[in-house]
Amino acid sequence: MIAIFLPGYELRGQPAPCLWVFYRLLSSIKEPCLYIIGQEYLTPTESLLAEGRYEVTKDSQTQLGYSLPTPDLLDRHHFKFLRKELFNELLAQNDGNVTSAFRSFLTEEIPSLSHELWEVLSERSDIEAILTWTNCPSLSAAARRRDIPVMHLELGPLRSPVYHSTAYLDFTGVNGNTQAGTRYAEDRNAISSDFSMEELHRFFYISTDPVPPKSMELYDLGMPLQVEDDSNLIAYGNGFDNCTLLSHAKLKHLRKVLVRTHPGSQFSLKPSSFVHIDDSPNSLFFLQQCKKILTINSSVGLEALLLGIPIELKGDSSYAFVAAAESEEERARRMYFYLFAYLVPFNLITCPEYLRFRLSEPSSLKIIEYHMKYYAMQKTEIIETQRARIEEQQTRIEKLCSELLSKDQTISAFRVEIEQNQHEIRAYSEQLQLERSRLATLLTSRSWHLTSPLRLIRQLLAPGGIINFRRRTYNGFRYILRGDLKGFVNRLKAMRSD
After folding, report:
1. 483: left (phi over 0), alpha (psi -120 to 50) or beta
2. 133 and 199: one domain?
3. What is the pLDDT of residues 256-301, one digit of tens each?
4. Which residues pair with 163 in a beta bridge?
5. Is the same domain home to 248 and 130?
6. Are residues 233 and 115 in the same domain?
7. Angle between helices 85-93 and 98-107 (to 10 degrees)
8. Phi/psi at 99 (nearest 5 deg)?
């Protein structure tokens, strides 16, 4: 049986700090497991949604690959709940300082916690390994007494949708106290690689967008900041945090410094004559504007190495041995080992088959082979997805072309009809002009004037003709009575025209 330890204390001021990890493991590992957690992890999802926890949103479920647990799913597993009082005791020992309490949890063996965990582990004899999402010396001490390996897991530095998603799997620690450098030193002679840094970056880069080009105007220094209460800074920053890193950069007396804040930061940074705030869409655009990177232990530092940008590390980091290489060739070789033998494809860290493969203590070459096969399968899926997307777009284009052709044909038919109508209009216009010319000729002819009395007599003899004539004559003489001779003349002309 696999045991899973997730701290149930409010180590960052929030209960169930690894809630999404809990959901992911429940969704991925179907066999019964022993969960050593806090009671808060079983809080109803409706309550969590009301509290505004991001872990229960649809977006988080889609992005991180899990679904919310059902009662039937929870019934498959075994649960042991840690005492909440222990955290209160730890908090009291650190004068109520949550950050100090968190640091103690990450870096020190706490006897009461170690004993509690040992008692839980002693209740079963079938535990193969313990999975944990954070360093915990108390857990490691209890596991050693029971001779149970501890597998430290964490999100890796390269993540989708820009890169193949990676994760950490380390038997001694994550972020700090890792095996990365010692494993490379042990297996160095057995590992050979002809990959350059550019080729390694190209292998892991899966975004459909091209890699942004190098900026024409470069900042002297780039500084990616980190989440203030993350374990990387609290326990493994070697005394550095975001503020001390900025102060350290000021001592270099550089004119152009570009600072990239972390999206999960609780604070905003004010721009100044020294600090320029980066607003790039992702870290790649940020890196392409910098000559050098100064970081505590941000994953952006690893990206910088892949792009051939020099970095200065101030904290403990699993990729520190890569940055310390003295030649480009050796750095590329170490990076190859780090990416293929140390980092793990993200989906594999919640796969029982893979976890048991790692428990069998395979060589680094076997691990690389396993990972290569997985990445090859993943690339095939990516290619198939892109092919399906291209075919879908091609079908859409063909449909649009067909619709466009149909509309072109309709437009052509309309044009023919318009031309026919224009031809008929021209013919009618010519006929109308001819008729007008004939009428004008008729009205100005001598015969028309000679027959004018006859037309007048015809009008008088028509029904009501005399009465109409008298009325119009009377109206005409009214113009004379008003002294409007011009109106009288016009009236006579109208009568004559009629």
Report:
1. left
2. no
3. 899 999 988 888 888 887 889 999 999 999 999 999 999 999 999 9
4. 205
5. no
6. no
7. 110
8. -65, -40
